[in-house]
Amino acid sequence: MMRVISGKYKGKKLIGFDIKGTRPTMDRIKESLFGMIQNNIKNSTVLDLFAGSGSLGIESLSNGASECYFVDSNIALINIIKQNIENIKEKINIYKSDYKKALENFKNNNIKFDLIFLDPPYEMNLINDSLDKIYKYKLLNDNGIIVCEFENEKVENDNYELIKQKKYGSKNIYIYKLKV
Length: 180
Hints:
27% of the residues lie in helices and 30% in strands. It is α/β, with parallel strands linked by helices. It has one domain: Vaccinia Virus protein VP39 (Rossmann fold, 3-Layer(aba) Sandwich), CATH 3.40.50.150. The strands form 2 sheets. Strands 5-4-3-6-7-9-8 form a 7-stranded mixed beta sheet, sandwiched between helices. The radius of gyration is 15 Å and the shape is globular.
């Protein structure tokens, strides 16, 4: 079972951990991750780009984010997110979209983010392309951060500074900010 681990929605049960193609972030990893980024959450605009069940975006809202954009291309997961956000009162935007189209849409509508989660399906190696597009479209606010979760992908980008990294078994978490 998945649940919100901290903040005002702590304990809220989340569905979608057993959907084919998803691998939710385990509670202990999520707890550690949110400990690392807690100073970046309050009043932030969040993008959960490969949202899956929406767990990371919902955790952000629970911890004081003011708005979250959930993006996933799978309609079954979009429906899971809709169920998971029931009774959550913050500003929520849900897009059923391919990540490339979503990022372009944000650029065209001048939407920028303080906190971006990149947790794509591991075997697809989409983090570097996502980082490039986020930079090219200027979607990250100056003091914003990007949290990348991946397994075997080689993640490198000259436009960002790696400020934290952690390994949990086969999972890696890299946290980036824009280079000054």
